[in-house]
Amino acid sequence: MKTVLVTGGNGQLAKCIKDVIRKDGKTQFIFADLDDLDITNQLEVQTYFDKNKIDYCINCAAYTAVDLAENNKELARKINVEGVNNLAIACKSQNTIFIQISTDFVFDGERKGLYAENDNTNPLSVYGQTKLDGKKTLQNSLKEYFIIRTSWLYSEYGNNFMKTMIKLGNEREELSVVNDQIGTPTYAKDLAEVILKIIETQSQVFGTYHYSNEGIVSWFDFAKEIFHQEKIKIKLNPIPSSSYSTPAKRPKYSVLDKDKIKETFNIEIPFWKKSLTQALSAYHRKYN
After folding, report:
1. Helix (H) or strand (E) holding 98
2. Domains of the chain as residue ranges with CATH
3. Per the residue annotation, which of 127, 157, 209, 253 is the catalytic one?
4. pTM surpassing 0.85?
5. Residues 133, 140: contact at Cβ < 8 Å?
6. Tens digit of pLDDT for each residue in 119-178?
7. Residue 48 annotated among the catalytic residues of the structure
């Protein structure tokens, strides 16, 4: 039986992984949150791996508060860089395959076309830089790993754009959302399915991959579709990023090229509107 450790066990991606697990008796999943395993403590991480024979480690633990990271650089680095390093060292000692989740925020958004896995990185924020540095420290320790960059992650769990829009849509009559940041929303449950496929197929095609849902939209487009599907009547105004100041600078364009992951694992990726419909259904099952 394979044993899979999922760090950040109470986060939205980990919860989505828990939802899509196939109980076939061949794989055991351990979901560890901060109370169970502090990835920033090297001794604790190594001891945990020594006590548990881990075949795969999916690192869903991360400091993801993009704006707060600008003033909490040390904490963001501790989790996103040192934590990854500690896990990578432990994985090496146990021959554990490491699956690291990364972000489109490693790019600066200046590219005119889709971002491929080997395109130059140039983070604009502390969050983006720490996620990139986490990748580098992982690569220094391991040769066998998967890094999956994703974008605009949302689900029925945790704090995310979809849930925020539903809340604000039910509270306000008017809302402004930026329309000049372009990317692709990703339903965390779709990403979870792909991660499980990597494990189930025991793939040895290691490296960096891009995964998001299909389609190209702005945050304004995303909000508009949420309100449309939810039948929320609200006046929605498109505004430029310059009118909505945030501590962290975000890439203006960060659409990911997903050809590599589609071809390698023979997967079809859902269009973002279809996945949004599924996420909204799951949201209402959870909260209604």
Report:
1. strand 97-103
2. 2-152+188-214+254-270 (3.40.50.720)
3. 127
4. yes
5. no
6. 999 999 999 999 999 999 999 999 889 999 999 999 999 999 999 999 999 999 999 999
7. no
